[in-house]
């Protein structure tokens, strides 16, 4: 599981509000698909750039979600001119597409390269969902994509020896500040 990322997709159609169309198989198997909609906060303003968010679930554990939202266009349902899809109220429809990674924080390069594949999978699921009016529309289970390299996070991590050195310097500075504060307080008496 350490180098695997499961695709997911969340969107709405002409009549139904946000639904999870594509969900990681472990979430489907455990009845925990709802964690995705809560984790991405689907009702927020769109579109979104790539976003990283850690989600804690009592039954599944800690997960990292890497996702973005894009305008859903007619090309998703086989239309030709690429106009934005709209719901029955005339609002633009957005497709939230992402990856779930258990206990890891994917780096930018891995996330972006895999999101292109997620977009293809989401498009396949969306074509089936577009005409649905079933409020219990089931999520399609997704299988993992294997990351090319172990994920290390979007922010650089210090090597172990540098981390130790940084902690020691920080503790030393803290002791100096505490010592100066004590000296000042004693001098005021």
Low-confidence stretches: 150-162
CA(first)-CA(last) distance: 61 Å
Q: Treating each run of at least 4 consecutive H or I residues as one helix, how many helices? A: 4
Number of strands: 7
CATH architecture of the largest domain: 2-Layer Sandwich
One letter per element, helices H and strands E, the order comes to EEHHEEEHEEH
Q: How is the biggest beta sheet arranged?
A: 7 strands, mixed
Apparent shape: elongated
Mean pLDDT, to the nearest integer, reads 81
Helix content: 25-40%
What gyration radius follows from the Cα positions, in whole Å? 23 Å
Portion in strands: 15-25%
CATH-assigned fold name of the largest domain: Beta-Lactamase
Please identify the top-level CATH class of the largest domain: Alpha Beta
Total domain count: 2
Helix-and-strand structural type: alpha+beta
Task: Summarize the SSE layout with pairings.
Layout: E1 4-11, E2 19-24, H1 25-29, H2 34-40, E3 51-57, E4 61-71, E5 94-102, H3 108-129, E6 140-142, E7 145-146, H4 160-187
Parallel strand pairs: 2-6
Antiparallel strand pairs: 1-2, 1-5, 1-7, 3-4, 4-5
